[in-house]
Write a structure and sequence with these properties.
mainly alpha; 495 residues; elongated; 67% helix; single chain
């Protein structure tokens, strides 16, 4: 580093001498006029190369590079003495200051502000330098709680995204998208002196420009739904590994793009559904959770039908098959499928065609000890008795099988209040709608219902559904649960 610094000082000293010679029209080393001008330009290029080499050495000294070459090590200590002045109109000088003073938030803000101005004037030129993006992402990770750093970095990224080539080739990386999504979902600190929410706004603008780079001026897609170059698909892929706030940020983004007629719903749905080749259960759960979020969106109510038309339910079923051993995937899958179906006939038809019933039954059988999954699956299967007969046959739906699965879950999760409410409501529906009185009563069904009502005497909703089941079974209306702690010789079940 010492040798590089000495070389840089020597080049910069010579540059000053050449500048003076050009201004005064004096010669320099025997060169004048155009020849001297060419030499000056060569010296400029040399200065940029030396600066670039210094920047790379500073970055490597800070820590080992991670994905996209982003250094994950601690901040490099700043040079001794007061912070140096730097040429804010020279990219190499700005980048050098960003790296040398990365440990100091105030100096980082100064340098990134200058970079943002350069990017505003020449997004393509700034964005073409890979080290710029690496250092911006590094500053975000070094100063996650500094609002000013977050704001100026998002401004710079937003300005860089003005160039479609930079948006597609640089900013659509997983690392950059993850940083933008984190900022877009960030809750502003009300105690901060910085403009509250500006980082979130700028991150959203940058994401919008990245996605918009995938369509032409008429809103026509420049990529196919299955293209690996799809920026929107990359946004989805990055969001899947984030938390629910990332999903909300993406939903907000696509809703605004649709409202502003930048892209069409079909465009969004196709790219989301076409990229379900996830490699992990975590990503599968993220995909299903995001599908649920989209289906329940009040800001874009037409998104759910578009997803269904694009094959979201079949994609959900395929994920449940691939990760059938994962209870968390099974649970999120039931929630996602229920949200996508909603009250829409097209949703139900797609669910039936995809074999959704079998996936719910399989999940209940595999994960019998997962109380919440059992609860939601009981409710989902109970809705099947309301389907037309031809739909039930096509779906392979068996109300008798659903009764058995419901009773098994009720026995298994004796103390689960919500599960027992769902179970009793389902059993009352099977009796009323499918005339399955005998199936509900089979194997001690009446005793099961009485025992549940005795165990949960203070739960009004449970008692109401329990009474409906007993009435359907023809039990004496005078029967009431015994007081807690009392029995009549039938394991606490009154007659």
């Amino acid at each position: 580093m010492v040798d590089a610094s000495a070389e840089l000082a020597e080049v910069q000293q010579e540059l000053q001498a050449v500048k003076k010679a050009l201004r005064t029209n004096d010669g320099y080393l025997g060169m004048r006029g155009e020849t001297l001008q060419q030499y000056f330009l060569q010296l400029n290029e040399k200065e940029n190369l030396v600066l670039s080499r210094q920047v790379q050495q500073l970055s490597l000294a800070a820590g080992a590079p991670g994905g996209f070459g982003v250094n994950s090590g601690p901040a490099a200590p700043p040079p001794a003495g007061p912070p140096k002045q730097f040429n804010k109109e020279d990219l190499a000088a700005v980048l050098q200051h960003m790296c040398e003073y990365e440990a100091l938030p105030g100096e980082s803000v100064k340098a990134v502000r200058a970079l943002s101005s350069l990017a505003y004037a020449n997004a393509a030129g700034v964005g073409a330098n890979d080290q710029v993006l690496r250092q911006l992402l590094r500053l975000l990770s070094l100063h996650p709680e500094d609002e000013n750093v977050q704001i100026v970095v998002m401004r710079a990224l937003c300005n860089m995204a003005y160039d479609s080539a930079v948006a597609v080739q640089k900013l659509a990386s997983h690392e950059a998208l993850s940083a933008l999504l984190a900022a877009a979902s960030r809750v502003p600190d009300p105690s901060s002196k910085a403009k509250p929410g500006e980082a979130c706004v700028k991150a959203g603008e940058a994401l919008a420009r990245i996605v918009a780079a995938e369509v032409d001026d008429q809103g026509r897609p420049l990529t196919t739904p299955t293209s690996q170059c799809s920026n929107l698909a990359k946004v989805f892929e990055s969001a899947l590994l984030g938390d629910a706030s990332w999903h909300t940020a993406v939903l907000r983004l696509v809703s605004l793009l649709v409202q502003n007629e930048v892209i069409e719903l079909r465009f969004i749905a196709e790219r989301f559904v076409s990229h379900t080749t996830v490699a992990s259960a975590e990503a599968a759960q993220g995909w299903l959770a995001f599908a649920k979020t989209c289906a329940n969106a009040d800001t874009c109510t037409e998104l759910a039908p578009a997803l269904v038309e694009a094959g979201a339910l079949r994609a959900a079923v395929q994920l449940l098959q691939r990760f059938s051993a994962e209870a968390a995937v099974a649970l999120t899958g039931v929630e996602a499928m229920s949200a996508l179906v909603g009250s829409r006939t097209t949703g139900l038809q797609a669910f039936v065609d995809a074999g959704g019933v079998q996936r719910i039954e399989d999940g209940m059988g595999r994960h019998i000890d997962h109380e919440l999954l059992q609860t939601k699956s009981i409710r989902a299967l109970a809705s099947g008795v309301l389907w037309p007969d031809d739909v039930q046959r096509k779906a392979g739906y068996s109300a008798k099988c659903s009764v058995a699965l419901t009773k098994e879950a009720m026995v298994r999760h004796w103390s689960g209040e919500e599960l027992q409410i769902a179970g009793l409501e389902a059993l009352s529906r099977y009796i009323e709608r499918a005339n399955l009185r005998a199936d509900v009563a089979e194997g001690g069904g009446e005793g099961l219902v009485k025992a549940v009502m005795t165990r949960h005497q203070g739960v009004t909703k449970l008692q109401r559904f329990g009474r409906l089941v007993l009435d359907g079974l023809g039990v004496d209306k005078a029967w009431k649960p015994l007081a807690a702690g009392l029995t009549n010789g039938t394991n606490g079940v009154g007659k």
